[in-house]
Amino acid sequence: MKSVTNLKISISGVRAVVGDTLSPLLMVRFAQAFGTWTGSGTVVVGSDTRTSGEMVRHAVLSGLASAGCRVVDVGICPVPTVQVMVEHLGAAGGVAITASHNPVEWNALKFIRSDGIFLDSYQAEELLAIYHQGEFTRVGSDSLRLPRTDASAVQTHINRILQLVDAEKIRARRFRVAVDCCNGAGAVATPLLLEALGCEALPIHATPNGIFPHPPEPVPENLTDLCNHVKATGADVGFAQDADADRLAIVSDEGVAIGEEYSVALCTDFVLRRTRGPVVVNVSTSMMVDEIAARYGAPVVRTAVGEVNVAVRMKKERGVIGGEGNGGVMYPPLHYGRDSLIGMALVLQSMAEQKMPLSEMARALPQFVMVKKKVPITSERVPAILARTREKWSNYTLDFTDGTKIIGDRWWAQVRASRTEPIMRVMVEAPTEAEAEDLAGQLMAEIASA
Amino acid sequence: MKPLKLSILGVRGIVGEALTPELVVTFAQAFGTYIEGGPIFVSRDTRPSGVMIASSVIAGLLATGYEVIDLGVCPTPAMELAVRRHNGAGGVAITAGHNPSDWNALKFVAGTGRLLNAYQGEELLDVFHQGEFARARWDGLKPLRHQAHAVPEYVEALLEQVDREAIRKRRFKVAVDCCNGACVDATMRFLTALGCNVLAINDEVERPFPHDPEPNPDNMSQLRAMVKASGADIGFAQDADGSRLGVVTEKWDALSEEYTLCLIAEMLLQSGDTLVTNSCTTRAVEDIAARRGARTIRTKVGEPHIVETMLFHDAALGGEGSGGIVLPRMHHVFDSTAAIAYILDYLARTDRPISALAGSIPRYYMVKERVPCPPERAPAVMARLREMVDERPDLGNVDFTDGIRLERGRSWVHLRPSMTEPVLRIIAESETAGEARSLVDEWGGHVRSFLL
Q: How many domains in chain B?
């Protein structure tokens, strides 16, 4: 069977490759389907900086308008800004045009519901059903509504953040902050936020042109430029964002990329100091979070991977902090969504209060090593692989929230199928690198032989 | 039945019914695939669906790897001029011209600044039906630019066509009805630059059409009242995209749209000139041409047919009874503001009031009727009509240039399926109203009987 790797229509939205599977017709039709799903309501549209953003935006504007929606076009801005604006404007929904950490030739539509959270799996199923049915609301000329451009969205988002942190305390420290926006949507917001927090912003790759200087996933191997920049400038901290600025990774004052797992961990430590309540994270997030929560006597709730899964659970459990270990900090007082900007603000306030270098703050957290591996597979093998893992590790506590997670004593391992690529992802976290690599090796061998 | 027309003239339909963003985005991709060269210009008229349709057009064109220059609300002839002057690969006009507000359409312009000719139109349809479109990669996508100087450039080009000083001296009082359409800005700038005292009605582009935009006497009552109240020297009615023109005389007579071409023929044609018009335009224009020693060539209905024939014969003037006028000195497109320019220039040069010119137009009576007819049944009806006229040579001289045209004595009747609506059009003209009416009734009866 041919594996289709460059078009993904799923409950995460629609994702495709420009010049190949991403046709303007596909974008128009999905926008019509979403406009139909919202009942011709107000819809906020924003995009990251990808070169295909303009084309996709026009297709989306047209499809939404045709379905009778009132469109508020917030232009190029971080995805979390679109989410914040949906809530802020009391809109029926939002469309974020971004393929987040995917390579530059991709683009995608992500659909947001009225509370600023992405569509949950049932709502996404509804949307897909409308799309496949093809019976869209198409209003006549008299009911068409002109789109409105709103250039104040980023400022609105920043103002909301300033209300949630002790901006005076941060300003007093006059931090020097290096930031790598990957020429993505963060470039239009991050320098403004840092200025508002009295920091000296030292940006690199902050031209919002969608030409990514490195792969946009903010993992350590992509952050060499930022590490060197922190060292060269002697910055107090370095922040890296992905193309749509929902994920955050941190480079310490020593110029070391400490790993994207530390973003949620540092924010969790900071928030739990002042507020007690559940921490909600996905199953793949570092055990650091469990041990930090234990220090403060806070419960940890684990959900399936995927922003919406965490967000919905967080709302239900009245979580106080959490997110996804891949750098997706979620702070409910702002909104239920991954947001690199609130992550930065929380880390900066934590630095201001603890009065110690970021590198020391990181070292003060429980220490684990996480390894992440990919094994190319064909999708028909997924059930067998998962069954095999399940059988093999049946003596351990197993969690099937997403794939198979094996929970040991101060270690865990997870095997799951990627939603966006034909690969199995293996993640292992353990106190030392040797232990983690050893476990990962065993699991990869099992996958290969399944 | 949802009226939708895919033809060599582009694609046209009612928004929300047949004219959907899916169809529009696909057509735009087909156009981007078909043409070659520099940027593509996009213009629209003021109808409420314009912005939505423009977004689809822009998305489709960008996807094929073209730079797109969005002129926003802009007369079609101004966009056509911009394409030619700035080496565009082509242009897309988003306008249903004279159709009511709930319609919209795409008109496709080649790099020459003229509508695609019939063959190009066919080729574009082939690309559309084939469904294989050019797709630029992420690094081959070009930007969208917004430009506002198409209208000032167009007005400057119009001013070069006339004797500005002569017109200024006359301080003409000009009433104008732009139907809240795309011409408002250009027409106001142009008339003001000529020192005219401009009395404008329906000059707000944000507002809906005050009446159907077809510049016929039924839609010119406001303009007529304005001319009467103000004592204007002339009144002009423009359709939504600036293709067609209607005229009201200083004696507040709203002239049939058939007379716009007649007036300009009377002003312009010289001995030896060629006039090009379609099969169903008034015979009066042919009489005027003959009177002035010019020949008339009749073509199929539609701007591309008129224009291509004009180019081939190096014609001095072309146009249709709909009020669409081609003045080749400016460019080979229907251009209502160029027609205004020509008329004012003539009035400044001659001292003849417009009513005197109108009075010299030979009198005929024209009756037009539309018989509802689903597009898929039209060919069979036309075949039956054709059999009838083949069997009855006594009915008169037959011409099949476009549909069927029967001429006997000084009367004629013309039958053809509409290019834009699910109707069969019957037009008859005669020296008396009664004769014209009975011709339409007679042939309308045949058509209806074939549809039973």
A: 3
